[in-house]
Amino acid sequence: MIESSLDEEKALWKKGYKYIAGIDEVGRGSWAGPLVVGAVILPTNFIIPTGFADSKHVKPAKRREFAAYIYERIKTYSIAEVPVAIINKLGIGKATHIGFRKAIRLLSTKPDYLLIDAFYIRHVNRKNQKAIVHGDEKSASIAAASIIAKVYRDNLMKNLAKKYPLYLFAKHKGYGTTSHQNAIRKYGFSQVHRRSFNLSFLNHDNAV
Description:
The structure is a single chain. By secondary structure, this protein is of the alpha/beta class. It has one domain (7-160): Nucleotidyltransferase, domain 5 (2-Layer Sandwich), CATH 3.30.420.10. It contains eight helices and five strands; from the N terminus they run αββαβααββαααα. The chain has helices at residues 7-14, 60-73, 84-90, 92-106, 135-138, 140-163, 169-172, 178-187; strands spanning 20-26, 35-41, 76-82, 113-117, 129-132. The protein has a five-stranded mixed beta sheet with strand order 3-2-1-4-5. A hairpin with an 8-residue loop joins β1 and β2 (35-41). The N and C termini lie far apart (41 Å).
């Protein structure tokens, strides 16, 4: 497993940037539920715990442990939700950038530089951001944002599972597993499914 580092952050701190926000999204490929974006500003004395990495490479119990560790030590953070209605209306691409910008606005401390996984945020000055390929595996700030967003969204999907028990959201978190496909075939879409996605395996799209 690749562990995250503070190399990117340290280089920016040396250049005089004080508040560096790592930003990452969770749920982009999910078929149901909102997109969730996390933003985290780490302190310069942040100590990276052993095994700290992108949320996809960390088991659920460890993610929750890391999330608690992050909350105890960070300067500021934010979590932004983009509802299914926006995703269905605008598409997941535009919805993702809306979530990024919302997460930035929600930070109690205005960041002076942004580190993002994979791509630049639209309508934000490119001079003050850096898109890092596999950034969630390299930057501790981005990994931290990924972890808190993942833990938050997992809890959200568990709550949605209580409202829509037929779909087993607590198990697959809205992603396209075989059990999820079978549930959609049998029961159709729920109100929290992303109808804008081209789910070609379906023969119907009735709502529950």
